[in-house]
Specification:
Length: 474
């Protein structure tokens, strides 16, 4: 009599069955994806499962039950994480029932991938983003999705990438909204290239501006200012005039060099990224017309422009350092014969890097006397830029809140971004969270910016640091 009664047992019972070597009993391991940190990293790490039909063309038809990466880092680094299947040969009796295992080849574990994410910083970023989204600060508003990013300013390594609403951390790479006044850094960089209005020239601004019969308001009545002052006080009227002096095409040329309208190149599946929307005369959606009245709005991040938070922090970093980095998450792979250090694109020097001094000066003034004064209590001077973007699709009809920061200003080590869809004014909603995150980062700096060699545990790993220790794999 033979009986086939397949069932499921836990790991402990399974180990006991395997050790007993019972005749006619075959143990078939099954696996389950586990997220020790829950939603904190789940969308970033991604998912696994049986091979999808569209993966067969790339991978070939895998044995039934094989698990592959379906999304996130599990998909992007699947070739390193896969390992090699083992082999088991079983003798059966005349009735087809298994009797004994005749030979067995052990499987080879996949590689262990260490990430640039610091777990402690990720936890802090997620908690502070929740505060910004909940409207926890005076005069802030509740938002329906948001993102908070910390990136190594010199290399592009992502130290934290938290998200709430929509698809968690993927908000940073997929979700789009108008950048508002954070885009003024791009417009200012274009002026550094073309000198349409000399950065030291003081021009009248005031409460409003009229162009082509259209009235454009300033967010506040402001005095005559030069470029650094206009950045510091986010002077809309100054940037209306600067955009007209530049013309849309020249602004678009520099914006493209800063990555606007392009994928960032981060090591995630391309299907989980967006290039955003960036349109200008001669480059418009089918059936759409560029009207002259749109031109002034282009320079303040409105009109036909929508970006992801990762695109925004990338141009912030570029104007602060003079280099355009390619963001990345994967650091090292160990085990399975994989390379120790993953290759990443080197930062690309901007051809106009030496001309960006007035833009950096403006970001510094923004903190010392402009719209970003909440960052004044950091150990070293910081730079920043507020953003408040009109967005009818946002809760309450907008606006969206942004805040960009670079620290330290003169020798940038990190750039930090907070974005909340429907969060209201960037100064009220996002800047407090960015300030607190930078306070945490400077207190724990030694542990956050250092890493240890990868331990071959066959898993995705993130760093975890404390004030007294270096980052170490969890």
């Amino acid at each position: 009599l033979s009986v086939n009664l397949p069932g499921t047992v836990g790991a402990t019972v399974g180990a006991r069955i395997s050790a007993a070597d019972l005749p006619g009993v075959i143990l078939d391991p099954s696996y389950q994806m586990v997220y020790p940190e829950g939603s904190l990293l789940a969308s970033l790490l991604g998912s696994t499962g049986a091979e999808w039909s569209d993966q067969v063309a790339q991978l070939g038809l895998l044995p039934a039950g094989d698990v592959v990466g379906h999304s996130g880092l599990e998909d992007e680094y699947d070739s390193y994480l896969q390992g090699q299947d083992g082999d088991q040969r079983v003798l059966v009796n005349p009735f087809g029932s298994a009797v004994v295992t005749s030979s067995e080849t052990a499987p080879v574990a996949g590689g262990a991938l260490q990430l640039s994410i610091d777990l402690g910083l990720q936890e802090e970023a997620s908690a502070l983003l929740q505060k910004s989204m909940a409207g926890a600060y005076p005069q802030s508003q509740t938002g329906d999705w948001g993102s908070m990013i910390v990136m190594d300013a010199q290399t592009g390594a992502i130290l934290a990438m938290a998200g709430q609403g929509l698809d968690g951390a993927a908000n940073a790479t997929e979700a789009e909204m108008p950048p508002g006044s954070t885009f003024k850094l791009v417009t200012a960089a274009a002026d550094a290239v073309f000198d349409a209005i000399s950065s030291s020239t003081v021009i009248p601004t005031g409460c409003s501006y009229t162009y082509d019969g259209v009235y454009y308001a300033n967010w506040e009545c402001l005095p005559p200012q030069d470029l650094p002052e206009a950045i510091a006080f986010s002077n809309d009227v100054y940037f209306y005039q600067l955009t007209l002096a530049l013309d849309p095409q020249r602004l678009a040329d520099v914006a493209t060099e800063l990555g606007v309208g392009k994928l960032t190149g981060i090591d995630l599946p391309t299907g989980e990224q967006s290039a955003g929307e960036f349109f200008y005369p001669g480059h418009m959606p089918a059936g759409e017309t560029w009207y002259p009245g749109v031109t002034p709005m282009m320079g303040i991040g409105q009109g036909y422009t929508a970006v992801t938070p990762l695109q925004d922090i990338r141009w912030l970093d570029a104007v602060a350092t003079g280099n355009l980095v390619t963001p990345y998450l994967g650091l090292d792979v160990s085990g399975a014969g994989a390379p120790t250090v993953l290759p990443h694109s080197a930062p690309a020097a901007l051809p106009f890097a030496s001309q960006l001094g007035p833009v950096v000066e403006g970001m510094g003034l923004e903190v010392t006397e402009g719209t970003g004064t909440q960052l004044q209590n950091l150990p070293e001077p910081a730079g920043g830029k507020t953003g408040t973007a009109q967005d009818p699709s946002a809760p309450h009809g907008g606006p969206d809140a942004w805040y960009d920061a670079v620290y330290p200003l003169q020798d940038p080590q990190v750039v930090v971004l907070c974005a909340v869809h429907g969060g209201g004014q960037g100064y009220y909603d996002c800047e407090p969270s960015v300030d607190q995150l930078l306070q945490y980062l400077t207190t724990n700096e030694a542990g956050i910016i250092s890493t240890t060699p990868v331990a071959p545990t066959g898993a995705l790993e993130v760093g975890h640091s404390s004030p007294a220790s270096s980052a170490s794999p969890t």
